[in-house]
Amino acid sequence: MGDIVTIKGLKYGLQLTFAKGASFDDVQANLLDKLQSGNGFFIRGTTVFVPKGYFAEEQNEALRKMFHRHGMLFSTELKRPNLAPPSRDTSTKASKAKAPVEEAQKMMVINHTIRGGQEIKANCSVLICGNVNPGAQVIAGGSIDIRGTCRGFVHAGAFGDKSACVVADRLMPAQIRIADLVARAPDEEFKASQAERAMIKDNQIIFEPVAR
After folding, report:
1. Burial class (CB in 10 A: 0-12, 13-18, 19+), 81
2. Which of the 8 DSSP states describes residue 40?
3. How far is CA 123 from CA 32, 79, 101, in A?
4. Are 172 and 194 within 8 A, CB to CB?
5. Mind listing the pLDDT tens digit for each residue in 69-84?
6. What is the pTM of this model?
7. How far apart are CA 120 and CA 115, in angstroms?
8. Three-class SS of residue 167?
C-alpha cells in the first residue's frame, strides 16, 4: 500500500492525504505512530487539515482529540486558522504577555532551499522543505524543521523558549542556538546518516536521532 498517510506542508499548516483503500483504523494507527515517533513535522501549535467529507464526523472527532492530546489543531476547512482569538482580558499588559506565546505556536512553511547570504526571521515555528546552505541563517521564535540538509546558522526559541527544537534530515549547522544556549554539530565524519533533533536537556544542547 505504500505510505498510508502523506503529509504536505502548506502556508498555514499541514495537509494530510491518504492511500487509496486505507481504512480509518489504518490511518489512525499510522498517524499515532508518526506522532509518537517524534516526527519533526508535527510541531506543537500546528494546524492539521484533512479533506472535508473524507471521514465521518465521529471519525473526525477521534482525530481531533488525538491531535489535541499532542498540542495540535485539527480542521477540515482548508483556510488560515484563527490561532489567536481575542482575549476577554483586553488590557495592554495581558495582550503583550500572550503575544509571543501565540506567535510561537504558528508556523511558517518555506518550500525552497535557503541559499548562502539569505536570512529567514520568524516569530513562529518554521518548516523548510529544502536545504539550509552554508552562509544562510534561520531564526525562529519556535521550533525549526528542515526537510533537507542544514549547514547554515539556525536559532530556535529565539525569544527564550527552551522547549523549542531543531530537526533536519541531515543536521550539520555551522552553529546552532536554542534559546540562549549555543552549540556546533559534531564533525561530519561522526554524524549519523539519519534525521536528527537538537534540543535542550540538562541545560545543554543534545543531538538525538528521530524517525521521519
Report:
1. middle
2. T
3. 28, 20, 9
4. no
5. 877 778 887 644 343 3
6. 0.56
7. 10
8. strand
Of the candidates 164, 170, 173, which has an alpha carbon nearest to the alpha carbon of residue 144?
Answer: 164
Assigned CATH class of 101-207? mainly beta
Please tell me the distance from the alpha carbon of residue 144 to that of residue 156, in angstroms, as a whole number.
6
Neighbouring residues of 113: CB distance < 8 A, sequence distance ≥ 6: 130, 131, 132, 133, 148
| Domain edges within the chain | 5-75, 101-207
Which of 80-89, 104-113, 185-194 is least confident? 80-89
Cα 141 from Cα 139, distance rounded (Å): 7
Return all residues near 176 (Cβ < 8 A) that are at least 6 apart.
Answer: 153, 154, 155, 166, 182, 183, 184, 185, 198, 205
Average pLDDT, the chain: 80
Averaged pLDDT, 158-162: 90
